[in-house]
Every structure is written in structure tokens, then in C-alpha cells.
């Protein structure tokens, strides 16, 4: 009886732990992600809506009444090597280059990170920081990988999802464009 | 099409509202709530014209004017505010709040109802305590009347409160607490001070002293320091912590009256301000006095009795907003002593030089001369003219050194009682002496480069509008220098006034328009792609176009090529050389197309000042009818009598004065001695000038359809030009405009005056 109760308790504990950290699959086509962007002393709320997440990735943005899109080509989503921080342009779809991503890293870069505990992106080596506390995005706890820039500053918290390695937070960006995830809807 | 519909709706609404009653006082048409919500951010409490004390509710610490609409609770009522500003808040000092019950809680914020706001008067019912609070004010002392539900009366006086507090110490544009002190001097007297620094202009510390008197005695009290309450302790000295008092009042009366004197010198001076201005306890007398002060100024511009109520509200509220700031602090200057007037809260001249200062000149040249003298006196003692100034500290500069325009405007309009030689000296300081790392506060940033290269290179922030603005400021210097017979100075600065050409890229074509003010580096290379960030490993760039707003994405708000604008906007901002601008744009037809593109494609930003003059630029191609048409479209789409009735930050009355000028059919080109004539929105306007001469503008046959000027007569003689000299207005007389449904040849031949040349 005690053995059974112990098993039930462990199962319940595992269930609680599993539900505390949102599974990566919470990001789906149609997900809305609220960010706060920190731009040279100004805080700007930005909402990204994931319109498609296979093949070409289309991210619609909404900023203070303005809308537009970023299109990440399938090749870049698969093998991109750098983030493009081009300014959003009102009512415009910005198509990024064949090796450029926005708000996420490429799947191949993520696989490298899983394998080597580091990756090269933006011409910078980012090394995995281990034993990090659980990442909190608003009320959500997310399973993320925190990597730290080596040659120059840059901290990224990347969603632990090989199919959609979304950047939840970028701090100390030498380009001055930093952001944090607030919520996933 | 949209504009046409809105125009018809506004006109119909104006007609339906019917003519205003002739005998009604002008001040009664003022609605302080116009522009209080949305971007307008106007001050809603009572104030004298240019009044130092501006009591108003504060709804938290975030809003610039203190007030926010329901349901945000009222935190209390503080005594100093600004009107229509953007950026971080300033002031919000010495907060009072009535309540009922025990003296054990520092938070007495309350929801509200029955808010009633009129010129010189504010009242509200605080729902938590059921205390009705009424406020009126004198110049340097506010008057409160609290009606409690019973004789259980309590009052909080918070010497530590201020607006714009941020959790991050030293956050940019946040006000920072320095110190405070409070003392219950007697059962009916409280004094103390609040010392705060920074805020929007990142200014040095300023101290607001107060002295409050009550008409009921305090029976029990508790003071506080930090968050700790001290029951029975009547004072708290300054130890760099927030202080205040919770008071219980005695007597069987349900009514409590309180006067609060304010001073920037001492609490005894604050007491003296009460004794001088409000030596009695008659609330209505104070209210009548503030109303009369405004009425006296409103009487200077009388609009026809056939003006609709909506027109009266828009016009007189526009005048009201224009004269809320700068504030007259004569006799309250803590920095130096002399006989000159002292004005503060120039917030900022970048915003106000175009229309607010010229409108004050029309209403009261004596007042404008005081303001100019205050600017020159600040130069004399602080070393530089302000471009912005608040809390007794210069700052911030946004573009040029626009006190130059204000002084030149006074000079060409022959304002009396100003030492123009000293004024020229002050202007030359801006143009010749770099502010030495203090360019955020005063002077001209990038001056060394500007004087060496003839433009400000891109490596200096805001190099685009700095170059364009400095060129115009140089023209202002040349204007005054020529008048004062300083020939060499004139020659140098009239030459420099053409410096805008050095950033004009002749061959650049965008949306069919040719030639733009564009970024150039120190070596003279035009910059199409611009690097951003500080990375050694990545070298990203962005493409600069005439529509680029690179802030805040690629640069901080103050670090772009233009301050709050694009090249499309600033490339029209050459107020002294419009004919040259037309020629550079490809001639009259190309310039008209350029203007049409600007408005039709919505590159025009109605919410900010850089484009204020642009709708009238059609005058210079002989098409004043097109200027008038654009102005009407803009007003119909963006101005109304609602709480959202202003399209952008009112900026000390800048938006409001732009509207007021266009309603009477005149528009100043500040720094130059003439006004452009547009189709008025009012059938008749009479300027009762301080020199005793009246000038009347009559639009005969004006209607929704008859919106074009067919012909004009000045003092009975044919007047075939769409501009008029200030001197003609000063001389008094009558300008009769015959209105028609179709554009005519009127005003198409004699173009606005050419600028000064070598």
C-alpha cells in the first residue's frame, strides 16, 4: 500500500513538474507571443504572431497599432547563420536573406547547440550556460537554453524546441536591440 | 475625400451649435478638458495667465499633467504642473488630500465622480471619503475648499510627492527625490518644502517651499518620514527622506478652507505670497479674480458675435492653452536678484517659437517683451539662452538655438523695452561658443563642426535638423545684426543662413520629389547606408531614406538624424528661403506636386511642430487657395472640442496657437515681420491692441462653400497680396476679405517678401 502511494506521489510530482515547465509544443502556427523590446531606453511592446512555422516562416508583428511581417526563407530557417535586426516596416513584408533569421535561430544551429553545447551565430560563439533556473515568461515557465556570447556580449534564452528554436530573451545585444518574452497566447 | 466629409461634419456641427450669446464672457467658452486625453496632455486645473501655481489632481505619478481620466484613482492634489508636454514628467510638488477617519494610513487615494472643470475652477467628489474638493488659484497661492460629509475632517499634506518617480534610481528623464521637510507651525499653519531634481530636462535640483493656512484648527496629528508614522510629532526635518503630515481638524463645521502659498525662495516668502494675493477667505473672490485676469487678455482678440459656440470654444481655449506657459516667476528666482522679469518653464522654444510666442505678441506685446527680457536675463546670468528650461535650469535642446527666433521676432515686430544689443550678444554666444559638453542643456551641439564644414556631420546626433535649424537661427542673427548696423556680423550670418544647402542632396529622388536634406559624413560623403550598434563582430547597416524614422530601433530617441521627424518633413523647413527651396525642388509645378505628395501620402505629421509652416507653402507658388484648402482639411480632421481634440502634445500651447492663428486667417512666419493670409474660419476678428489701435479682419460671405478669398481691401484700398506686414496690423484698420466658392487670382502675383540678402 505504502509502495503504491509512493508511486502515485512520484507520478503526481512528475506531472506537476511537467506542467510547470510548458512543453515546447506550446508554440504552434497561430501562437501570439508578447515581447517587450528595450530600445535605447525606450520600452516598446511587440506582439509576434506565428503565421507559418514549416517551410518559410512568416512572423506578423504588431507594434502600437502598426502591423507588418518578417518572412524567414525555409533555407534560413533550416541553416541560417545570423540574426537580422532590420527595423519593422509598416504594412510591409520584409523578406530576410537566405542565411538570416529574426527572433529565432536556425534549426541546424540549434542542433549544434544540443550536440556541442555551443553554437556560432552572428559571427559570435555562444556557449551554453548550464544549471540555470527555470525561465519565467510572465506566468509561464519555459524550458529554455541560455547561451552566452564569448567574443563579445550577448545573452540568449532559446526555447528548447528543435523544431522551433524561438528566442525568448536577448540581453546585452551589442546592436542595442534587446527583448524579453512576456506571454504566449 | 475623408477630409471633405469631416470638413462638412465640423462645419455642420458648428452651424447647429448656433451663434454664441453676445453678452457671454469669453472665459466661459474655455474648456480646459479639450486635449486632456490622448496625446494632448494639457493641464486641466486652475491657473492664472502664465501663473506660477498650477494646482491639479494627480492620478498616480506617471502622467505629465498629473491628471488621468476616470477610473484611475486620485492620489491627491499637488501645486505645480506643466501643460501639454511629452517626455518624462516634471513637478507635482506639495500634494494635499482630504480624507476621513484615523490618522494611520499614508495612502488616501480615492476613486472620484462628478468632476467639474472650468477656467479657474476644479471640483470633484472623492468617493472613498465623500469629500467634495474645490480648487481655485491666485498667481502664487492656491485656494482649496473641502466639503466633508460630517465634522470628522482629516487632511494629508505630502511634502515628498512628485511626478515621474521611477523605480530605477537616476532613470533618464525621471524626477529624483532629494529632500523634504514639514512642520505644523501652529494649529492652523503648516510649512515645509520639497526638493527634487532631474525630470524631462535633467535639470539641477529645485526647491518648492510652501506655507499652508487652514480656517479650522488641527486637533490631532501624526507626521511621517519615509514610511514610518510619528503620532503627535509635529515636524520632520530634512534627512533626504519623504515627509508629511496627517491632520485631524476640530470644530463642528463640515467645511474646511485651505490656502497654500508657494515659493521658490522660502516658506516665509510662500506665506507672504498668500498674504499679498489672498488676504481673505473668500473662495469666490479668488475665482472671480482669476477669471477676470483671463478675460482681460481674451478681450484683446474679440471674435464676431456670430461665431458659433464650437468656434468660440476652440478659439478661446486655444488662447488659454497658449498662455499657461511659460510661467511668470518674477520675484521667485532663487539664482540671482535683479529687476528683470523672471520666466521659467520654456517647454520648449523648439515647440513654441513658431506660433505660441507670435500669438502672445499679438495679444500682449508687453508680456512677450517680458518673456524676451527674461530669456536675455537668463543668458546674462546662466551664460546661455535657454532652448528649453524648467525648474530653474536650462535644458533640453532639441534642434537649434531657438531663442534666436524669439528675439528676432520681437525685433522685427518692434517690441519695446528690450535691450537688443544684449540680445544680439546672447544670440552670438550660441553661434560662436560651443557649450563644452553641455549641449544637452544649452547652446549648439556640433557647433565646431558646423562652423568648420558649413553643416553638422552625421557623427553628431540630430545633425539633420541641427543644420537646418542653425541655418535659420543664423538668419535670425543676421536680421537683428542688420537692424543694429553690425554689418560684418550681418554678412557672416546671412552667408551662414544658406548652410542648409550643404545637406541638400540635389540629385536624390523619392516619391517623385527631387532633392532632400540627407545625412552626410565629415568627409562630405552622402550616407545611404548607415551602420548601427556597437558590435565588433557584426557590422549591420540600415538604409536611410527620406521617410526613415531610425529611432528608437537603430538609435536612441535623441540620436537620430532628425529630432522627431523625417527628411520629408524637415526638407520643407527653410522658412527664410522658400523661393530657393522651390527652385531646388524643380520649380513651381514640381514644388506643388511635392507638397501634394507630402499631404496626400500622409508624410505630413499633424501631431508635431516641424511641419507647422508647411501647409502655407503654397503661398510662395502663388496658390494661397491651396494653402487654405489644406489648412481646413487638417483642422477638420484633427481638431475638435472633445477631450481628444488636439492631435499631438499641446507643448505649452503650440498646437492650440497654430489653430487659433488659422481660425482668424493669419499665420506668422516667426522671426519675420509678416503674416500669411489664409481663408479665416471666423467671419470677423478684432484685435484690440495694447497700443490702443484696433485691427479688424472681416471675411464677407464666408460659408462652408465660400472658402476662397476672391479679393481683399486693406483700409478701403485694394489689397492683392496674401500676406500682411505686422506694421499694418499695429497701425490699426480693417482687412476685408471677399469670400467666394472658387479659387481666384487674388494673392497669386505679389508673393511673400523675399528674405534678406547680402
Describe, in short, the structure shown.
The complex is a heterodimer of chains A (185) and B (758). Chain A is α+β, with helices and mostly antiparallel strands.
Notes on the protein architecture:
The complex is a heterodimer of chains A (185) and B (758). Chain A starts with a helix and ends with a strand. In chain A, the strands form three sheets. Chain A has an eleven-stranded mixed sheet. In chain A, strands 1-12-11 form a three-stranded mixed sheet. A two-stranded parallel sheet of chain A has the order 6-8. Chain A has helices at 2-20, 74-79, 107-116; strands at residues 21-22, 32-39, 42-52, 57-63, 66-72, 82-83, 93-95, 100-101, 118-121, 124-129, 135-137, 140-142, 144-149, 155-159, 167-171, 177-184. Chain A is built from three helices and 16 strands. Chain A is of the alpha+beta class and 185 residues long. The longest helix of chain A is centred in the N-terminal third of the chain and has 19 residues, at 2-20. In chain A, a hairpin with a 5-residue loop joins strand 15 and strand 16 (177-184). Chain B is of the alpha+beta class. Helices cover 27% and strands 23% of the residues of chain B. Chain B has 18 helices and 33 strands. Chain B is globular, with a radius of gyration of 26 Å. The relative contact order of chain B is 0.10. Classes of the chains: A alpha+beta (185), B alpha+beta (758). The A-B interface holds A 39-42, 44, 82, 84-88, 122-124, 151-152, 173-177 and B 172, 532-538, 540, 542, 550-557, 559.
**What's the pLDDT, averaged over the residues of chain B?**
96
Which percent range describes the beta-strand content of chain A?
A: 35-45%
Shape of chain A: globular
Q: Could you tell me which chain pair has the largest interface and how many residues each side has?
A: A-B, 21 and 19 residues
Number of helices of chain B: 18
Distance between the termini of chain B: 46 Å
Amino acid at each position: 500500500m505504502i509502495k503504491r502511494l509512493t508511486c502515485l506521489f512520484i507520478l503526481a510530482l512528475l506531472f506537476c513538474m511537467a506542467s510547470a515547465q510548458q512543453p515546447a509544443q506550446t508554440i504552434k502556427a497561430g501562437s501570439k507571443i508578447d515581447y517587450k523590446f528595450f530600445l535605447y531606453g525606450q520600452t516598446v511592446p511587440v506582439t509576434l504572431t506565428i503565421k507559418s512555422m514549416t517551410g518559410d516562416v512568416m512572423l506578423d508583428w504588431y507594434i502600437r497599432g502598426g502591423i507588418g511581417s518578417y518572412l524567414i526563407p525555409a533555407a534560413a530557417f533550416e541553416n541560417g547563420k545570423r540574426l537580422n535586426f532590420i527595423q519593422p516596416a509598416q504594412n510591409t513584408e520584409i523578406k530576410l536573406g537566405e542565411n538570416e533569421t529574426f527572433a529565432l535561430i536556425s534549426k541546424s544551429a540549434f542542433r549544434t547547440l544540443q550536440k556541442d553545447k555551443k553554437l556560432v551565430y552572428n559571427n559570435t560563439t555562444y556557449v551554453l550556460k548550464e544549471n540555470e533556473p527555470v525561465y519565467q515568461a510572465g506566468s509561464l515557465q519555459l524550458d529554455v537554453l541560455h547561451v552566452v556570447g564569448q567574443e563579445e556580449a550577448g545573452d540568449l534564452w532559446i526555447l528548447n524546441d528543435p523544431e522551433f528554436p524561438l528566442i525568448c530573451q536577448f540581453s546585452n545585444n551589442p546592436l542595442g536591440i534587446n527583448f524579453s518574452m512576456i506571454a504566449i497566447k | 475625400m475623408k477630409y471633405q466629409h469631416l470638413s462638412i461634419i465640423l462645419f455642420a456641427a458648428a452651424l447647429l451649435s448656433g451663434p454664441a450669446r453676445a453678452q457671454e464672457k469669453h472665459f466661459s467658452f474655455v474648456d480646459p478638458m479639450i486635449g486632456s486625453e490622448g496625446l494632448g496632455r494639457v493641464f486641466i486645473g486652475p491657473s492664472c495667465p502664465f501663473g506660477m501655481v498650477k494646482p491639479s489632481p494627480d492620478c498616480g505619478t506617471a502622467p505629465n499633467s498629473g491628471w488621468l481620466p476616470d477610473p484611475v484613482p486620485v492620489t491627491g492634489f499637488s501645486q505645480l504642473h506643466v501643460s501639454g508636454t511629452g517626455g518624462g514628467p516634471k513637478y507635482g510638488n506639495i500634494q494635499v488630500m482630504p480624507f476621513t477617519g484615523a490618522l494611520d494610513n499614508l495612502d488616501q487615494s480615492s476613486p472620484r465622480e462628478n468632476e467639474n472643470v472650468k477656467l479657474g475652477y476644479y471640483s470633484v467628489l472623492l468617493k472613498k471619503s465623500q469629500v467634495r474638493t474645490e480648487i481655485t488659484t491666485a498667481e502664487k497661492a492656491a485656494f482649496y475648499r473641502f466639503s466633508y460629509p460630517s465634522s470628522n475632517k482629516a487632511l494629508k499634506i505630502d511634502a515628498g510627492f512628485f511626478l515621474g518617480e521611477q523605480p530605477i534610481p537616476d532613470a533618464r528623464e525621471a524626477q529624483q527625490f532629494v529632500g523634504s521637510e514639514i512642520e505644523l507651525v501652529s494649529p492652523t499653519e503648516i510649512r515645509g518644502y520639497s526638493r527634487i531634481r532631474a525630470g524631462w530636462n535633467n535639470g539641477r535640483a529645485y526647491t518648492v517651499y510652501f506655507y499652508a493656512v487652514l480656517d479650522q484648527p488641527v486637533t490631532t496629528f501624526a507626521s511621517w518620514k519615509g514610511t514610518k508614522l510619528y503620532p503627535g510629532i509635529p515636524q520632520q526635518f530634512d534627512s533626504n527622506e519623504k515627509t508629511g503630515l496627517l491632520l485631524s481638524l476640530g470644530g463642528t463645521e463640515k467645511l474646511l478652507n485651505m490656502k497654500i502659498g508657494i515659493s521658490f525662495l522660502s516658506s516665509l516668502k510662500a506665506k507672504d505670497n498668500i498674504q499679498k494675493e489672498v488676504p481673505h477667505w473668500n473662495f469666490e473672490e479668488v475665482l472671480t479674480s482669476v477669471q477676470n485676469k483671463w478675460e482681460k487678455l481674451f478681450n484683446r482678440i474679440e471674435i464676431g458675435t456670430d461665431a458659433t459656440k464650437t468656434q468660440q470654444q476652440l478659439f478661446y481655449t486655444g488662447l488659454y492653452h497658449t498662455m499657461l506657459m511659460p510661467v511668470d516667476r518674477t520675484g521667485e528666482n532663487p539664482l540671482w536678484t535683479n529687476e528683470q522679469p523672471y520666466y521659467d518653464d520654456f517647454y520648449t522654444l523648439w515647440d513654441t517659437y513658431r506660433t505660441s510666442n507670435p500669438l502672445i505678441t499679438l495679444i500682449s506685446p508687453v508680456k512677450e517683451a517680458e518673456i524676451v527680457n527674461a530669456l536675455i536675463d537668463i543668458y546674462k546670468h546662466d551664460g546661455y539662452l535657454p532652448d528649453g528650461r524648467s525648474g530653474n535650469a536650462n535644458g533640453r535642446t532639441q534642434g537649434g538655438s531657438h531663442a534666436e527666433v524669439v528675439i528676432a521676432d520681437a525685433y522685427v515686430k518692434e517690441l519695446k523695452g528690450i535691450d537688443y544689443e544684449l540680445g544680439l550678444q546672447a544670440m552670438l554666444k550660441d553661434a560662436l561658443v560651443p557649450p563644452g559638453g553641455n549641449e544637452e542643456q544649452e547652446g549648439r551641439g556640433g557647433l565646431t563642426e558646423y562652423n568648420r564644414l558649413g553643416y553638422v556631420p552625421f557623427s553628431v546626433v540630430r545633425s539633420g535638423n541641427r543644420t537646418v535649424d542653425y541655418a535659420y537661427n543664423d538668419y535670425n542673427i543676421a536680421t537683428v545684426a542688420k537692424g543694429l548696423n553690425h554689418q560684418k556680423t550681418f554678412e557672416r550670418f546671412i552667408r551662414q543662413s544658406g548652410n542648409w544647402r550643404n545637406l541638400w542632396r540635389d540629385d536624390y529622388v523619392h516619391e517623385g520629389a527631387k532633392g532632400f536634406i540627407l545625412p552626410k559624413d565629415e568627409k562630405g560623403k552622402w550616407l545611404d547606408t548607415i551602420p548601427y550598434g556597437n558590435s565588433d563582430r557584426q557590422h549591420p547597416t540600415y538604409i536611410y531614406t527620406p521617410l526613415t524614422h531610425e529611432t528608437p530601433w537603430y538609435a536612441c530617441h535623441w540620436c537620430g538624424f532628425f529630432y522627431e521627424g523625417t527628411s520629408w518633413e524637415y526638407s520643407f523647413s527653410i522658412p527664410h528661403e522658400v523661393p530657393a527651396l522651390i527652385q531646388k525642388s524643380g520649380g513651381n509645378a514640381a514644388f506643388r506636386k511635392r507638397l501634394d505628395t507630402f499631404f496626400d501620402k500622409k508624410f505630413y505629421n499633424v501631431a508635431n511642430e516641424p511641419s507647422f509652416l508647411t501647409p502655407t507653402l503654397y503661398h510662395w507658388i502663388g496658390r494661397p487657395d491651396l494653402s487654405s484648402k489644406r489648412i481646413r482639411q487638417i483642422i477638420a480632421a484633427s481638431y475638435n472640442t472633445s477631450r481628444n481634440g488636439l492631435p499631438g502634445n499641446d507643448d505649452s500651447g503650440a498646437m492650440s496657437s497654430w489653430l487659433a492663428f488659422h481660425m482668424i486667417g493669419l499665420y506668422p512666419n516667426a522671426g519675420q515681420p509678416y503674416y500669411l493670409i489664409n481663408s479665416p474660419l471666423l467671419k470677423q476678428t478684432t484685435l484690440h491692441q495694447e497700443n490702443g489701435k484696433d485691427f479688424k479682419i472681416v471675411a464677407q460671405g464666408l460659408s462652408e462653400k465660400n472658402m476662397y478669398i476672391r479679393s481683399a481691401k486693406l483700409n478701403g484700398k485694394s489689397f492683392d497680396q496674401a500676406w500682411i506686414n505686422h506694421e499694418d496690423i499695429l497701425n490699426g484698420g480693417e482687412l476685408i476679405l471677399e469670400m467666394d466658392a472658387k479659387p481666384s487670382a487674388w494673392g497669386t502675383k505679389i508673393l511673400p517678401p523675399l528674405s534678406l540678402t547680402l
